[in-house]
Amino acid sequence: MMSHAAYVFASYAVAAATVAGLVFWVIGDGRARQRELKELEAAGIRRRSAEASSGAGR
Amino acid sequence: MSENSLAIRKFSDLANPTRFLALADRVLPWFAVATALFFAAGLWLSFTTEGDYQQGETVRIMYVHVPAAWLSMMCYTVMAISALGTLVWRHPLADVSAKAAAPIGACFTFLALVTGSLWGKPMWGAWWVWDARLTSVFVLFLMYLGLIALNRAMDDPARSARVSAVLVLVGFVNIPIIKFSVEWWNTLHQPASVLRLDGPTIDPEFLWPLLIMAVGFTLLFFTLHIAAMRNEIWRRRVTSLRRQAVRNAGREAQAL
To answer: What is the 3-state secondary structure (H, E, C) of A43-58?
Structure first.
């Protein structure tokens, strides 16, 4: 039988781990997609709707 | 008539993904800071307020369990509104919104189930019971997983958007079932004590940390949702640019 404090600690630990995992996944996903967009732009592939000047197609 | 079309144009201006990306860049830092501030205050109150005279320390589990459970339902409601946007107005961002929300909703539902279990063991003497509230939330979790799987199974967002939107709307029937399960059936789970027509029946000692944590969790949801929507727009741009590159390469090969 765990003490009550252990249940409270476990709850907050699971919450912290889940939220941290979610935050890092969202940040990591965003960075990976931006890297891909930069690579495509470096290869000279641009969106048709984007103006010739850079920055418009962000 | 002209006023109407002006309103529609303003609405569709907001729906423009490029405009959304600019707006997201501007608001995300503010949302992130507000989330951190509310969590700091909420966590401070969660551990400095008194324990319950019957539940002791375990009442502190409520400050993560209840906001997570609220958000699991709010996230699905956001997805249902987005699904309407996809089916009725064919809003270009609506499908992006629904797809970005699903993994976030799944995480909050998982959190509500796990913390509920960790609260149930010391208070009810059981990790899990198949009562109406717990079962309906478990079904919600499975629906989130199903929607994530469906979204990933189909490559073309234009085709998956409508199928996914119909499924989200059909699944929305579960949300009132979850909310009222504790009133319609005899459950081990307690009935609502905050969102009641006759006002909260919970002591202010517990209500304040709970409300502040709930605001913190809600801000966290919107921060993550906006960031995930931005990621989804980027993902779609990468896909369409790659397709364009392949088409260009094909045309050049033909010209030779």
So the answer is: CCCCCCCCCCCCCCCC
